[in-house]
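Notes to self after the call with IL:
- keep both proteins in one doc
- input above output, always
- annotate only the second one for now

Protein 1:
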Amino acid sequence: MGFFSKWFKSSEQEAKQLSSGLEKTSTSFISRITKAVAGKRHIDEEVLDQLEEALISADVGVKTTLEIIQNLQERVKRDKYIRAEELRIIMRDTIIDLLPKPLDESLISVPKPYIILVVGVNGVGKTTTIGKLAHQYSKAGQKVILGAADTFRAAAVDQLTIWAERTGAQIVKQGMGADPASVAFDTVSSAIAKQADIVIIDTAGRLHNKIHLMNELTKIRSVISKLIPDAPHEVVLVLDGSTGQNAIEQCRQFSAATQVNALAVTKLDGTARGGVVVGISHEFKIPVKYIGVGESINDLQEFNSKTFIDAILGYQP
């Protein structure tokens, strides 16, 4: 585990929280698996067909589902005989292998300040995710500065200001309608001057005009890189997990508009569509870094593919 992982400490309480948050997805998926293998002594084509339906119903996505089923078919063909009770273990390993692996942070030099640019459409929990990240970093003793570069909506600036006050972070903001790139520039300049550890910059989420969005994000990245050549170091796309396939389309749009290198999937509690985390990450080859499994300030977790898949499958190693 690397530089950031120490701030997202794994605990038994968090594991329970994850299982609770994914309960609807898990209950639906497990019931389908149970039905598929009922009375079966080994995995056959009928079982695989029902598993395919279960994966698609969990919003894993057609492309990813077909690859999972293909891998299972190859495993069945190779091993000739697989007991139905082994299915969860095989599925667990198959799905985990499909997910892109995050960088080993222990092998990289983390710059100071570390610049995080957060993108996503309005309503996905973008600003709330920023607030929860600020809380985690501040709690760990890191000096955090937030940049209110979503100047298109006054509510976004107001909400980020509340989060700054709540978490003890500093905030850089201008008036509504100000140039977002100017806010980003001022934020990074302030972070350098004040020797901050973490900078998190909010951005507007307007997909109805993709060209404008692309130009705006390109300009923000350009002014940041003038101050710190390799920045932003992380571009986090926030997606609402409860929207299923709509989240996949948003990922497609944003990854075309800017270089996204991390995903945060929110609102996974209370939805049966948690499988979308697997589909998005696999299809776009972007690692999921954070997941939201509740509304409280501590309900943002660092994503761990093994514990996530275990929670969905109800598997206890």
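Protein 2 (the one to annotate):
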Amino acid sequence: MFKHISVLLILLALAGGVVQADFLAYAVTKKDGEVPLPEDPGAIVKKNAKKLVGVRWGDYAGKKIRVGVMEADNQSGAGSYHYSGPGGEAHYEGGYEQVPINGIDALLTDVLTKTGRFRVLTRTELNEVLDEQDLGDSGRVAKPSAAKIGQVLGAEYLIQVVVNSYEANVGGKKGGLGGVSRKLRAFGGIKGGKNKSYVQLTFKLIDAETTEILASQVVEGTITEMSMDLSGMGWGAGGALGGFLGGYAKTPIGQAVMATINVGVFELVKQLGNLPMTGSVVKIEDGRVIINLGDGAVESGDELRAVSQGEDFVDPETGLSLGAEEEEIGTLKVTEVKEKYCYAVPVGFETSRLSRGDKVRSTKAAAPLEYGPDWN
């Protein structure tokens, strides 16, 4: 199947087709190299997740979206635990059928970072701010100094994985463990014979300010055999994941989770990748406006629509924000772009109408996401 896609891509290249564009992501295998993912890889990971364990993300130089990763929610029939230990070495509690909660969070954070499209808040930062918000909401601190619910370190969105099903080593023969190590068994290692592991994860995209669920995508992954070597496939045993990934990546259930997370993040990028570029007014000085959009997000000559946000409407029954009316101020034209910010001037109105924090939106359509042909 991969071979037919590779031939098609070569023909497109010779014909001057769209293959010259950088695709959103590529499946990576030692046998077939890199193959661009189609627009809907869900059926592929459901049938054989092994094909999507290794993914390389296409180059991206635009603005990074600020996201926070919430703790995974285990709703499966399997037990769950957190791993911890010095130097990244995990201490395992319970058997291989348990769900490693913070391990899944770490894998999700790793993939989000590798896309190059997200600025990911660490779990420590997120927990500290959420605790501060809970304290502020309790009434035990003065309201003006309390952290506002929803404004999580400037995160635009929160992402959470819900584990619906987590089945390690189902089906096949149940032989002896042989030379498989105790650590590998704790990760969900081989029982003997031909093994099958299955996971079903739901990826929730949440508005950080209103807590509204904007999108919810269910992804299933199945692996019926184990591929021990992941070198060159986008995963590594070092870094923040420490010894956890090194062991987990060698198991069918671990690889099923990794492939499912790859597809879940792929779907999240599809949800967010075509949104117009947005930013805020940072400062107004000498007739110019400084905006928090820099190199890669805007170019000199771009036009931005400036809006002011009115009163925030809060639902009296739920206490959640319903949004606010916006008043259009006018058009700003970008005159100079720095690494992390840009200068703009108003077109046909005075800077006195602008205030720090006013929102700006690009009038230029986002670059379309590029997908490979279907894997038929």
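Annotation: The chain has two domains: 24-272, 278-362. The chain has seven helices and 17 strands.
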